[in-house]
Write a structure and sequence with these properties.
mainly beta; ten-stranded mixed beta sheet
Length: 317
């Protein structure tokens, strides 16, 4: 984890809660997040190196050919109830196969998670109508910060970046990062159909990482916020747009650079007494989106912020 007194320079321009927001958009969120999301998962160390799959799950043919495997093929059937604040999804890892053997795909693990309702498992969950969300999950070793970002120009394309962090003496320390690159393949069927050879994405763990110079420098951003500390609104909250724009200078050295034009950072801002856990997606040169969890000095979640960025004239661009 990087530690700095001032990791970024921020100029705030009159941010206030937007009065134009029309209330809860859970119904829209449920419609956009539900369905069969298939793709690939890659795990990375806290310095950005891809983690190879365990030898016992790799077919003998790959080992004989000395082919190393770093990506899981995954399914993520998701169902949100439009008439009540609850949802569930499963992360299904499929055993690697040789060639195109969709019909022979075997499930390796299934991780089912529930949001809201009587069986709620999530610590905090913030959502937007387009299907993007940020979830904080507790586990015995710390926290999982799951950031789901939707491509604004293609609602059937998304990434989920999970920051696995430990809590050591009330400090957040990045342990590893999981990256899911997923496409929407149809309505919810509880994982009964496989994308198989129809998967529109491909393995990415060992592809080129983001060039940090593309996201460093001066940017302008608009924010939406979900405040959790001291809030009476409960575990599930909708992001509320904030009026105004902010100028920000992003420094490359604070970023963990990942493939697929993604990045992650966990930064302690000592002067403000907070730790920011952020992920970002460079959609194209000069355009990016981010999700950020902000924790207090006691490692308690204060708020979640999602932002849209456009490049502004300045050094580094």
């Amino acid at each position: 984890m990087s530690s700095a007194t001032t990791p970024t320079t921020i100029t705030t321009i009159t941010p206030t809660p937007s009065s134009s927001e029309s209330g809860c958009s859970w119904v829209e969120f449920a419609g956009n997040v539900s369905g069969e999301w298939d793709g690939f998962l890659a795990d990375f160390t806290n310095d950005g190196k891809p983690i190879e799959l365990p030898e016992n799950v790799v077919p003998n043919a790959y080992r004989e050919w000395e082919v190393r495997v770093f990506d899981w093929q995954t399914q993520c059937p998701t169902l949100a109830q439009p008439d009540k604040l609850s949802a569930m999804y499963k992360v299904i890892k499929l055993l690697p196969t040789v060639g195109c053997e969709a019909d022979a795909a075997t499930r390796y693990t299934i991780d089912e998670r529930t949001i809201g309702g009587e069986e709620n498992m999530v610590y905090a969950f913030a959502y937007q109508s387009n299907g993007s969300y940020t979830a904080v999950w507790e586990n015995p070793k710390g926290l999982e910060l799951e950031h789901c970002l939707i491509n604004p120009r293609d609602k059937e394309s998304r990434v989920r970046i999970v920051q696995v962090v430990g809590v050591e003496d009330k400090k957040l320390v990045l342990k590893n990062v999981k990256v899911f690159v997923e496409q929407w393949y149809g309505p919810f069927r509880n994982g009964e159909s496989l994308g198989g050879c129809a998967i529109r994405d491909s393995a990415f763990a060992c592809t080129k990482a983001l060039d940090g110079s593309q996201v460093s420098g001066v940017w302008q951003r608009s924010n939406s916020v979900a405040a959790f500390q001291g809030s009476p609104n409960g575990v599930l909250q909708e992001f509320v747009p904030v009026d105004g724009m902010q100028n920000l200078v992003r420094e490359e050295e604070n970023l963990l650079l990942l493939p697929k034009n993604l990045w992650s950072s966990v930064t302690e801002m000592q002067d403000e007494g907070i730790t920011c856990c952020e992920v970002g997606w460079l959609l194209e040169p000069g355009r990016a989106i981010t999700s950020k969890c902000i924790f207090s000095i006691n490692a308690e979640l204060k708020e979640v912020v999602t932002s849209s960025y456009i490049a502004a004239p300045g050094p580094g661009l």
